[in-house]
Structures are given as C-alpha cells and as structure tokens.
UniProtKB/TrEMBL annotation:
Catalyzes the stereoinversion of LL-2,6-diaminopimelate (L,L-DAP) to meso-diaminopimelate (meso-DAP), a precursor of L-lysine and an essential component of the bacterial peptidoglycan. This is Diaminopimelate epimerase. Pfam families: DAP_epimerase (PF01678). HAMAP family: DAP_epimerase. The keyword Isomerase applies. The record marks H166, E215 as: Could be important to modulate the pK values of the two catalytic cysteine residues.
Length: 291
C-alpha cells in the first residue's frame, strides 16, 4: 500500500507521502500522473519526506508539471499538518525542515474546533539581487525595472529570492485577464535562467497588499506562501507599505508575513487536512512503468 495525505492551504493543495519505500521513482511523468485531477489523485504538487542530516525532517517539493521547487510556504505548512497527523511533531513544539531552498523552522501554533491549523514558518531571508533569481545582466537590484515581453508589453519588475525566485510587479488594480496573458510570458522569460514565480500586487493599506500569483511549474494559483513573502518584502522595501507586519490577500485568502529588520521573514497562515488515501495496485503498476 502506498499511502498518502492530502491537505490544502487557502485552496493550494498538496499530496504528502514518504519517499522511503515508495516502490517507484517520482519521475516527471509519474508526478504529472499523480497530480492529474482527472486520471490521478489531483493536486498542485507533491511533498516527499526524505531523510536529513541537518534538520529534523527533509523535504522534496514537486510541481504538477514534474519539475522540483526549492521552497513552498503553503507546501511546508501542509507538510506540518502531515507530520502532526502522523504524530511526528506536536502542537507548540518547534521543528526544522531542510528544503533545497534552505532550512525552515516551523511550529504548529493552534488547532480550531473544526480542525484548521495555524502554522508558522521562518522562511529565510529575502534577497533582492539579480543573481539571486538568475536574472540576466550585471549584478543589480531591480526597482520597477522595465522588462519587455514577447507580446511587446512592458512590465516593471522587482525581483526577490526567498530561496526560490520571484518577480513582483506592482499595479494600480488587478486586471485578471491581462495578468493571465502576461504572467506565463514573465515566468518563462529568457532573461530568467531558471524561470520565475510571478506576483502582481496592489498595496491597499499601510499593512495590506492584494496579490495574484502565477507559480513556475504550476500556473495560476489561489495562494502561495513564498509568493506572499516575496510580495511583503518587496512592498516594505519599496515603501509601498509602512508596516512590517503585512497581510497579503490572494484569491484563496489571507497570509500574514512579518518582515523583520534584517529581512528575515516569518509566514503565518491556516492549513487543513483533507483526506488520507492509498494508491491502488493498478496505479502503482502504471507509475512503475513511467521511470
């Protein structure tokens, strides 16, 4: 039996499972099949627990297109719910997770009567250099730097690394149809060596920003924890907000980000478990053939 757990953070859903003893490789075709919402389990990605020599737990994060992500704020919070259900961590008991994008310290803060968890994650330090996100050209920090798209449109970008690459674009309003046209061009723009996660953001309050997210390897996403961190850091740096406790509101809901004076970031938000299940023998056989 290949058992798995499914959870979501503000509508951004992940499957969590144990890499050890899986019985098949998580190749890109296998990941795509599992994540397919018609022929697989269906999810925005897979969280695979692995061993770690430097943290309490290790984590590999797979996008639904089969590529790997360095870090995911929602994925990490869902991973915390998975560990809590397994009895591997407790409430109000800090633990650490090693990701390809760096070490993350986490804590399950509380559980509501209907089972919604509040989880906090120290997401690392925001960096604003072009080399940190793989942006072509001389080393620099971007401040509304113009970027020409394949369509001929010009967008003004602010790059942020949270251990994974982000491109924040401040707007006066969120025109979703225009964003859907532009975001894929930005995410795969040749100026970004590894691709980039894209956020369009509108500052609306001294401590609040509305945002819309397009994730590298996943597309339009109802919410993203690392994206919320990038938006908050860029908004503080550009003076778009006057507070360092920033509420980032996305289509799926709100995440809270504390941007400390040293640019380290603390993310807090809800997560819910959805179900546990097991892959059938037939599905396992199909996955075994996709190496």
């Amino acid at each position: 039996m290949t058992e798995f757990f499914k959870g979501h953070g503000l509508g951004n859903d992940y499957i969590a499972l144990e890499m050890d003893g899986l019985g098949f490789e998580l190749t890109p075709p296998a990941v795509r099949l599992i994540c397919d919402r018609h022929t697989g389990v269906g999810s925005d990605g897979i969280l695979a627990r692995v061993a770690s020599a430097t943290a309490d737990f290790g984590l590999r994060i797979f996008n639904p297109d089969g590529s790997e992500a360095e870090k995911s704020g929602n994925g990490l919070r869902i991973f915390a719910a998975y560990l809590l259900e397994r009895g591997d961590v407790g409430e109000r008991a800090p633990f650490s997770v090693e990701t390809p994008g760096g070490l993350v310290r986490m804590e399950v803060l509380s559980r509501s009567a209907d089972g919604v968890l509040s989880v906090e994650a120290e997401m690392g330090t925001a960096r604003f250099g072009s080399a940190d996100v793989g942006l072509a050209g001389p080393e620099r920090e971007t401040d509304d730097e113009p970027l020409e798209l394949e369509s001929g449109d010009i967008v003004r970008i602010n790059v942020v690394s949270i251990g994974n690459p982000h491109c924040v674009i401040f707007q006066d309003e969120l025109d979703v149809e225009a964003l859907r046209r532009r975001a894929p061009q930005i995410s795969t723009h040749p100026a970004f060596a590894r691709g980039v996660n894209v956020q369009f953001a509108v500052p609306v309050e001294p401590d609040g920003v509305d945002a819309w997210v397009w994730e590298r390897g996943a597309g339009e996403t109802r919410a993203s924890g690392s994206s919320a961190c990038a938006v908050a850091a860029a908004a503080v740096r550009r003076g778009m907000v006057s507070e360092r406790q920033v509420a980032v509101r996305m289509p799926g809901g709100r995440l809270d980000v504390h941007v400390r004076d040293d640019w380290s970031l603390v993310l807090r938000g809800p997560v819910e478990s959805v179900y546990r299940g097991a892959l059938t023998d037939g599905m396992r056989r199909r996955l075994e053939t996709l190496g």
